[in-house]
Amino acid sequence: MAAHPPTRRSVLRSAGGLGAAMALGATGVLAAASPAAAVGDGFGLSIVERDERDPRMRYYRFRTDAIGWNPGVNVLLPDDYHHSGRTYPVLYLLHGGASDFIEFDRLGVRSWTAGKPIIVVMPDGGRAGWYSNPVSSLVGPRNWEHFHINQLLPWVEANFRAYAEYAGRAVSGFSMGGFGALKYTAKYYGHFASVSSHSGPASLRRDAGLVTHWANVSSAAAELGGGTVYGAPLWDEARVSADNPVERIESYRHKRIFLVAGVSPDPINWFDSVNETQVLAGQREFRSLLTGAGIAHEAHELPGGHFVRDEMMRRDIDGMIGHLRRA
User: What is the pLDDT of residue 150?
Assistant: First the structure.
C-alpha cells in the first residue's frame, strides 16, 4: 500500500472506505422537485423540499440541526400502498461511500421490490459519513447516526403506514452502508430484526485497524474538512469498540443476518482490490465468531469485487420479507 498512496481524488472516489466507485453523478433523481415552505414535522426535522407525484417513490429533503446541510431521503412505497389500507414492514437501505440517497434508485430498487409488501427508506449518509456522529468536524455538524436513528426513523413511522416495532424493521446497505447496517443493529438492539451487509466491512481493528484508519482518512478528506470519525492521531477507543461488529457478537443473536462478499477483486483497480480483500477478511472473522457463538446467519462469497450484486439484493429482500412481520 505504501507504494500506491491514495490521492485526494481517489479518496473522494472511494470515500467511506469501501464506498466503491459507484456513480458520483446524481442522474436519476426525481425530476422537478419543488421547494416548499419549511414545515415543522417534529423529531427535529423540517421538510424544505418534497416531491410526492410518483405513486411509489417519494422524495424529501430535510432541515435538521444534526447535519450542516439539508439531507435527502427517498421513500419507496409498495405498489398497492395507496389502496390496500395495510401496514408494512420497513427496510432502511444505506448507500456506500462517495454516493448519496439516489444510489439504489439508479441500481434498480424499484425492480427489486416490484409487487413486494415492504417500504424502503433510502437516506443520505454523507460522502464519507460512516453512519456515525464524528469525534470532530471542521465544517459544522455531521451527526448521521443521530439523524437516522433519533429523527428519521420516528418520522417515517409517524408519516407512513409502517410497523413501529422491532419485528417490522430491517436495515441493509452496501459498502460503507453495509458497515452502517451492522453497526446500527448492534448499537440499537431492539430496532432491527434483520440486518444485511453487501460488501460491508465487519472488523474495525484487524490488520492494524486498516478500516478505522480508512474511515478517518476518507471522512477527513470528503466529509469533515479535516475532522475525523474516530479521532486522530489517537482513536476514541470506546467509540471504536461500540461500532465494531466483531466486538458486539451477542448483539446479533435472534436476528436474521445476511452477508455478501466478493472473492476475486479487480487486480487492476487498486481500491477495489484493497476494499473487497479487507471486506472478505473481516466478514470471515465476523462469521467465525457468529458460528462460535451459535448465532445463525446466511453468508455468500461470490466471484467479483466491490459492487452491488443484483441477484443478492433480490434474494436479501425476499428473505427479509419472509422474516419480518407481514403486511
Answer: 98
Q: Rounded CA gap, 5 and 13, in Å?
A: 14
Cα–Cα dist 280/242, whole Å? 21
Cα–Cα separations (whole angstroms), residue 146 to 114, 131, 272: 31, 9, 30
**In terms of C-beta density within 10 A (0-12 exposed, 13-18 middle, 19 or more buried), how is residue 87 classed?**
middle
Which H or E run contains 177? helix 176-187
> How close are the terminal C-alpha atoms of the chain, in Å?
49
CB count within 10 Å of CB 222 equals: 22
pLDDT classification of 33: cutoffs 50, 70, 90: very low
Amino acid 42: pLDDT: 80
| Residue 306 a catalytic site member | yes
Distance CA 92, CA 119 (A): 9
Cβ neighbors of 16 (< 8 A, separation 6 or more) are 96, 97, 98, 127, 128, 129, 130, 175, 176, 215, 218, 219, 222
44: left (phi over 0), alpha (psi -120 to 50) or beta: left
Q: Of 100, 124, 272, 316, which is the active-site residue?
A: 272
Please pick, among 137, 175, 196, 199, the residue that the annotation labels catalytic.
175
Sorted by where each begins, the domain ranges of the chain are: 8-25+42-323
Pick the CATH number of 8-25+42-323 from 3.20.20.140, 3.40.50.720, 2.60.120.200, 3.40.50.1820: 3.40.50.1820
Residues 83-98: pLDDT tens digits? 999 999 999 999 999 9
Selected catalytic residue, list 51, 199, 306, 316: 306
Taking the model in full, what pTM does it have? 0.89
Active-site residue flag, 175 = yes
